[in-house]
Amino acid sequence: MNLETLTQVNIERAARRPVFVVTDVSNGEQRMVKVADLTGDPLEAELRKQLRMGKSAMIEVDGKKLFVNVYAPVARMVIIGAVHISQALAPMARSLGYDVTVVDPRTAFASPERFPDVRVVAEWPDVALPPLNVDHYTAFVAVTHDPKIDDPALLHAFERDCFYIGALGSRKTHAKRLDRLKAQGASDQDIAKIHAPIGLPIGAISPGEVAVAIMAQITAQLRLPKEGAS
Amino acid sequence: MLERDEDILQAAEEWKKAGHGVALATVVETWGSAPRPAGSNLVINDEGTFLGSVSGGCVEGAVVTEALDIIASGQPKLLEFGVADETAFNVGLSCGGTIRVFVEKVA
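Structure tokens for the assembled complex are given below, as produced in the milestone run.
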């Protein structure tokens, strides 16, 4: 790898933008592909698939063996609400490699004792969220049941284009939420991104089971191909 | 998606900019129960200092030795390690897998 490529790769990684290094292992020929330059790349379909799977692998193109190394940003999870579900969800997400932060302005909930080894921010979303640099590679979960806390957080998640946005609440609660969010300027496209009722339908009852349903839904969103996309 | 190679490529860049000879080793293929997935990096400098891992400790020594030659020659090389390898007694993978490691100079 030449120093110029290495430096560029490090810049992209620091900025949390995915980057690929494609190497012909027979002769060392190499090129870097930034995610912004994927469209129209001769290997676009393969690279997009590998990015989705977060997997580096050898591929064969025209009889050449090419190694595609994917440098994807570490996924983050932001959980709004330091509730029982979050106590089960946070360690589960951590074990899957997510960098997890729990936000809840209610200090009785957002205590370190309830969330060992998890970053907990006991502030309102408008204070807590901007420093977290929420981005596309963030799964955003709102589970307080309190519109004063969940609504502004969801508006922030729309703005940052999180790959997954989920919110707790029945269909009825969710319909009311959509009205409130629209009144605050959310577009139809924004609100369509919310997974609600949250989690895959697995008949979850306990907080732990709901956490499993949420984690499974996030994984599906991350790994399965998008409809209509390659 | 797991946090990985966070400082390894950064170290490679810093060592190179500090004037060291540097080689980068990358796991490119694995078979069986290989301990580190494809894409794992190990960076080596001309003093034999290394950072990262390609096997969880089994073959790093052999990779570092090869890397020093590659820093000198500039020629990249594809190395293979596995239990069937005749060098297995020295540097084989205890887990029974096979890995291929691409080693290149940072030029």
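The first helix of chain A runs from residue 3 to 14. The beta strands of chain A are 19-24, 30-34, 57-61, 64-71, 76-80, 99-103, 119-121, 138-142, 164-167, 194-195. Further analysis is deferred to the final report.
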